[in-house]
Amino acid sequence: MAEQKIPVINLLHLVKEEKKHEDLQVERLESYLEKHYQRLHAPHRHTFYHLVLFTEGKGGHTIDFTEFTVKPFQVYFMIPGQVHSWHFKGTPKGYVINFSEQLLKSFLLDQHYLEQFSFFSGDSADCVCQLPVAAHPEAIRIMEAMLKRLNTGGDQLKLWLTELLLLIEEYCDGRGSIPASVSRQKEMLFRGFRRLIDQHYKTIRLPKEYADLLYVTPNHLNALCQEMAGKTAGELIRDRVMLESKRLLVNADLSIAQIAYELNFQDNSYFSRFFRKQAGVTPEAFRSAYSH
């Protein structure tokens, strides 16, 4: 089977001509768009973490097929693998930070440090935060400091990036779409379940199998998912399969049969029935609608 996918943007490709850090890019949004907009406005994935802070602008952007309206001092985040596109009106202003998966992991000696931030959950509902006025000066200060010291900052840049993430997490409630009444233990278990889905959704489709991996009963896992997300464990698994189906359908170079194979369905017709049941339209109709 052909291994073509949605266009993937590598951080090294973005910084190659500039001869700057290979694992960190900080730039004003205006200059970033001037150089990269033509190839980045269409749906694409990144291999790195990506955040944009808008200070001015109009239009919208889409993260995993959820549309958001650009607003001043809105910040959005993406983890490697998510799909997004831009559709701006004019040229917005702000800042862009791109960084590799290893940048903070190696610096902080914690392989799971970034997972504590709600906006890096991979759920598009948690990816966008509106900063209140009280946070504006501090966010700008950090961004400007990083721009000024980009070529000489060393570990200081990593400290500023960490400071920025902690600042935004503080003002974005810190827990994304998770109910405030939920205990930290339940939250960690739920996030562990979501991580397992991301790792195994192509091959593991039964809630019982995930429950076994988490050392809980299927009933306990279902009750947890209902409390945290208002859905069953099975629905969350199917949601993840559907998300990847949509991501792949955006790429016209992959046939429906190739996508079915990629997602480990028995055959094309089984995949089409699954997609239509979940989305209410056929894969072909979804692809046609999204491409216009």
From TrEMBL:
Keywords: DNA-binding, Transcription, Transcription regulation. PROSITE patterns: HTH_ARAC_FAMILY_2. Gene3D superfamilies: Homeodomain-like, Jelly Rolls. The keyword Transmembrane helix does not apply. Pfam families: AraC_binding (PF02311), HTH_18 (PF12833). InterPro entries: AraC-bd, Homeodomain-like_sf, HTH-like, HTH_AraC, RmlC-like_jellyroll, Tscrpt_reg_AraC-type_HTH. Residues 191-289 form the HTH araC/xylS-type domain. This is AraC family transcriptional regulator.
